[in-house]
Amino acid sequence: xxxxxxxxxxxxxxxxxxxxxxxxxxxxxxxxxxxxxxxxxxxxxxxxxxxxxxxxxxxxxxxxxxxxxxxxxxxxxxxxxxxxxxxxxxxxxxxxxxxxxxxxxxxxxxxxxxxxxxxxxxxxxxxxxxxxxxxxxxxxxxxxxxxxxxxxxxxxxxxxxxxxxxxxxxxxxxxxxxxxxxxxxxxxxxxxxxxxxxxxxxxxxxxxxxxxxxxxxxxxxxxxxxxxxxxxxxxxxxxxxxxxxxxxxxxxxxxxxxxxxxxxxxxxxxx
Amino acid sequence: xxxxxxxxxxxxxxxxxxxxxxxxxxxxxxxxxxxxxxxxxxxxxxxxxxxxxxxxxxxxxxxxxxxxxxxxxxxxxxxxxxxxxxxxxxxxxxxxxxxxxxxxxxxxxxxxxxxxxxxxxxxxxxxxxxxxxxxxxxxxxxxxxxxxxxxxxxxxxxxxxxxxxxxxxxxxxxxxxxxxxxxxxxxxxxxxxxxxxxxxxxxxxxxxxxxxxxxxxxxxxxxxxxxxxxxxxxxxxxxxxxxxxxxxxxxxxxxxxxxxxxxxxxxxxxxxxxxxxxxxxxxxxx
Lengths: 271, 286
Fold this sequence. Notes:
Helix content of chain B: over 70%
CATH architecture of chain B: Orthogonal Bundle
Radius of gyration of chain A: 24 Å
GO biological process, one term (chain A): transmembrane transport
Keywords (chain A): Cell membrane, Membrane, Transmembrane, Transmembrane helix, Transport
CATH class of chain B: Mainly Alpha
Transmembrane segments (chain A): 12-33, 68-93, 105-127, 139-158, 179-204, 236-257
Helix content of chain A: over 70%
Family (chain A): Belongs to the binding-protein-dependent transport system permease family.
Oligomer: heterodimer
CATH superfamily of chain A: MetI-like
CATH superfamily of chain B: MetI-like
Shape of chain B: globular
Order of helices and strands of chain B: HHHHHHHHHHH
CATH topology of chain B: MetI-like fold
Distance between the termini of chain B: 40 Å
Largest sheet of chain A: none
Main location (chain A): membrane
């Protein structure tokens, strides 16, 4: 009896907390349907009608399809490159037991401690001189910033993959690259999912670096949102519709892959 | 693979190249620039420690550093308490456990810039209206004073990141064998005693991970700061990262901004290293 009562009490606390967590989203969405005057009149209540006018205007003003396109291309290409090169490096480092190899791993781990702002100014200036302030340059930067953690995770996962696999394949006449692509890389799939999820959350939402690297034409969603907000700062009905649009892709992704996302984040943080 | 194997180096070349070009070379030449009059294009003279001495007298930077430190301490404490609380709640085998976990974690997936804009609306418009209709003046004018800006940033950070900290604690809580708690229950231990003597010591390693993460994350915050308060009113809620960006790109003092960036790097490195050292030591002592 005491147990059930306690459990019920905890369920209620949980639901209240969950409501508290969702309130900002509710306020954003419900007010995105209201007119400017209605928001001023009643900010908390339900909208009187589900008028899509704000969304239509925000969609055009945000140039939404264009920014969705650049966000998607930059994220997908960066992630693919990070996965490919980091898994190769993690494999090579774990199959070489020399002191050099462990020193290199330490260099990658040390790089994780360097905050972005302390390399940002010379980095952007270097890439500017090389005419690389564009999506290609940005993707290369993401490889540089993203590889350390990814290599660290791949290196950890490699300890579970026996070197006898390599030996057997070598006897069969496979070279290193073939062994990696055909045998090792498929076995690393679970950690590749983790690496993909962690880097996607970061790159998709990144703002400062794209702001310094990209132009208006190739702006990603957060960047476009920032420009948009500068223009519509007192026009909350449009701004909130824009924010809702910006969140839709993320929430949709979360809805379909929440289990993998939470597991991936858990793996990435604990290792 | 041996050190002299070509394949070893071929496999490492792409990442070593990227890491060198993107992180290490900028760090090294940036440190050099911080001792010169670099303007983004050329260096005409070496100025020694001039920028660093100026930083000591730079009230904007000192204020930003104080604000960031205070913010980080408050955020780390609250994040860990709330994150651990949420983790304990969702590991009680409630019917709603999975649902709760999903909800608490959700803000993490959305960028700080967008979350900051949403909360700007909540603090200014929603708090304002509630304050007006209920006659609570303290709910009005949020983000227009240093104090409300500070707590606004703290609330936003907790709402965004405690789900992440929750995930870390869950991983450790699930490793606690059920028998331990059951045995203690039979022996008549209260929930509080069980927390104090079983849960707390076994979750201690999670503090290493999560204190390290939250402290350095809190210190490096930029997006939320920009979209929630823009550093205002009058720059009083500006954090270090924003001061560096503004020094370099609004005031165009690139070398001076870089000197601040070098100091920022040293602070972050010291935090990270001392935390790892301290926590490792404490774990051994336990």
